[in-house]
């Protein structure tokens, strides 16, 4: 059976022109993900990098098969994106309560909500759905939550961002999907922005789209910039609080001081481009984890570039944390406008395969303990660094 490629169904809120321009998302049929022939995998790989996210429905996939699928995109990688069993052993990480590795396949993790029994080697496992009430500085009132108000919890890419390189792809497989009425994501940032979403939807935004909508002066800044992530970043931010949009952290001096973090080495800190180049299309994706960046490096403008309205025309090393976060928020907040967000309406046995180096995502939703959500997630720390803009890109946009 030939691979069938269909448009990804978009919600009424979506700006169809923008999603079409970014060539975002496809539904794939006629594929057995547990037994991909090499030529079929190559087709899937090209489709993924071209469209950023691929949806497969009614999938039967064991943890071993899910690991093999992720590994096919990066054959020399064998560690979960945060390291095998490292999240479980780092209780001070913000991720500790939300992820559990499957014992026989430690590269595949359980994510979800509530208590599940006799699942993949766990007689009993309790999972906690990420909540804005745990991580955000401000909260929606319990009364409004009861009425269906919720937030984006945490916009991010899947990556340890210390010692291990960001995974190329993530596979997310829905085993048990909670049922309930749709909810309304509130941005609560003074804009009045809201987005109706299915219960516990995973929200995706395109890094390509985020770059494309930048004004010229911010495209110039983006192609000239690199970000430096903090050591043990998820411990570093564990005592800080996030913005109401889920797009980054408020700067209140609440981060764990570097000398109070677990032992770390300067050589393991990651410094990565702010813009990453798609390996298939050559398009540029604005790709940065807004929660965990500590510093910003900006190269000076090329000699023949227009300096009018340019940001940091002579280059800069920005170490003021509030300034760093304000610059990134200025770039990234427009990219999560309601019309640019794809909130996936999960069905059981859906598998979402997404280009983790070309987009960011966030969980949504407020769940009760009896609303069981059980997914398998697999991404692998990459064997190589992402490519940033090349000389032609800098000449074009700087």
From TrEMBL:
Q: Which Pfam families match?
A: TauD
Keyword Secreted found:
no
Give the UniProt keywords, A-Z: Dioxygenase, Iron, Metal-binding, Oxidoreductase
The family classification in the record reads: Belongs to the TfdA dioxygenase family.
Q: Any idea which GO molecular function terms this record carries?
A: dioxygenase activity; metal ion binding
Q: Which residues cross the membrane?
A: none
Which cofactor(s) does the record list? Fe(2+)
- Source taxon at top rank: Eukaryota
Q: What InterPro entries would the database entry show?
A: TauD-like_sf, TauD/TfdA-like, TfdA_dioxygenase
Question: What name is this protein filed under?
Answer: TauD/TfdA-like domain-containing protein
In this chain the TauD/TfdA-like domain maps to: 23-370
């Amino acid at each position: 059976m030939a691979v069938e490629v269909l448009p990804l169904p978009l919600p009424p809120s979506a700006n169809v022109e923008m999603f079409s321009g970014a060539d975002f998302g496809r539904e794939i049929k006629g594929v057995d993900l547990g037994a991909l022939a090499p030529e079929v995998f190559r087709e899937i790989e090209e489709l993924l990098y071209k469209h950023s996210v691929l949806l497969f429905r009614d999938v039967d996939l064991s943890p071993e098969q899910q690991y093999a699928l992720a590994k096919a995109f990066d054959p020399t990688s064998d560690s979960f994106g945060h390291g095998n069993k490292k999240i479980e052993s780092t209780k001070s990480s913000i991720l500790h309560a939300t992820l559990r590795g499957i014992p026989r396949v430690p590269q595949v993790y359980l994510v979800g909500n509530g208590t599940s029994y006799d699942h993949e080697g766990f007689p009993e496992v309790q999972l906690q759905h990420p909540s804005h009430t745990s991580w955000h500085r401000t909260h929606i009132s319990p009364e409004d939550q009861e009425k269906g108000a919720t937030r984006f919890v945490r916009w991010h890419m899947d990556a340890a961002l210390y010692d291990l390189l960001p995974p190329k792809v993530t596979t997310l497989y829905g085993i048990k999907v909670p049922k309930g009425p749709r909810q309304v994501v509130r941005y609560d940032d003074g804009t009045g922005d809201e987005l109706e979403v299915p219960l516990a939807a995973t929200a995706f935004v395109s890094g390509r789209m985020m770059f494309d909508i930048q004004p010229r002066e911010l495209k110039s800044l983006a192609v000239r910039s690199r970000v430096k992530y903090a050591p043990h970043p998820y411990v570093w931010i564990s005592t800080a609080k996030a913005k109401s949009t889920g797009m980054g952290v408020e700067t209140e001096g609440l981060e764990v001081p570097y000398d109070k973090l677990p032992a770390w080495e300067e050589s393991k800190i990651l410094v990565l481009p702010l813009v990453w180049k798609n390996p298939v299309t050559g398009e540029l994706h604005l790709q940065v984890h807004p929660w965990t960046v500590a510093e910003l490096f900006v190269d000076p403008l090329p000699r023949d570039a227009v300096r009018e309205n340019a940001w940091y025309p002579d280059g800069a090393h920005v170490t003021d944390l509030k300034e760093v976060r304000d610059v990134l928020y200025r770039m990234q907040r427009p990219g999560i406008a309601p019309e640019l967000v794809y909130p996936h309406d999960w069905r059981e046995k859906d598998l979402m395969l997404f280009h983790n180096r070309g987009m960011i995502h966030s969980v949504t939703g407020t769940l009760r303990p009896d609303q069981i959500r059980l997914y398998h997630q697999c991404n692998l720390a990459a064997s190589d660094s992402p490519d940033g803009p090349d000389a032609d890109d800098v000449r074009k946009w700087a």
